[in-house]
Amino acid sequence: MKPWIRNVSKDALPHIEPSDILIQIENPDGIFENSNNFKHIFRFRFLGGVNNPHEELNITDEQSASLAKILQSALSAQHNVVVQCVSGSVRSGAVAQAGIDCGFQDYGDKRKPSKLVYQKILKYLLLKDK
């Protein structure tokens, strides 16, 4: 059975069942939610908008490469992944969609992936944009 990946909001995180990996994405000035329900937690701070007037706050190449590496490692280790951002659909949706494209099972969460975040992660996953 393939491992699954899902995207959730900050408000939903306390109600999520324990899993192997949590990827948290917060606004640059935001506060991370604490969660002890995960074996591994990875935290990132960035925005994901193409029209963001503060481009320096968008996802960086280094962050994109790190996220791609986390996804590839989790997939090969058969670990389930929860990706959490503030709304639970844009930045986390982009990471989840990239994960699905590289082989994770879709948990079925609604998402509106940030094209910027999605494309930057795909660049490091060596996949073509859909």
Structural commentary:
- The chain has 130 residues and is an alpha/beta fold.
- The chain has one domain: Protein tyrosine phosphatase superfamily (Protein-Tyrosine Phosphatase, Chain A, Alpha-Beta Complex), CATH 3.90.190.10.
- It is built from 3 helices and 5 strands, in the order βββαβαβα.
- It has a 5-stranded parallel beta sheet, with helices on one face.
- α1 (61-76) packs across α3.
- The radius of gyration is 13 Å and the shape is globular.
- The mean pLDDT is 92.
SSE string, helices as H and strands as E: EEEHEHEH
Classified in CATH, the superfamily is Protein tyrosine phosphatase superfamily
Strand content: 15-25%
The tally of strands reads 5
End-to-end separation = 25 Å
Major sheet description: 5 strands, parallel
How many whole angstroms does the radius of gyration measure?
13 Å
Q: Which strand order does the major sheet show?
A: 3-2-4-1-5
The CATH architecture name reads Alpha-Beta Complex
User: Can you tell me the number of structural domains?
Assistant: 1
| Highest CATH level, the class | Alpha Beta
Which percent bin holds the helix content? 25-40%
- Unreliable residue runs: none
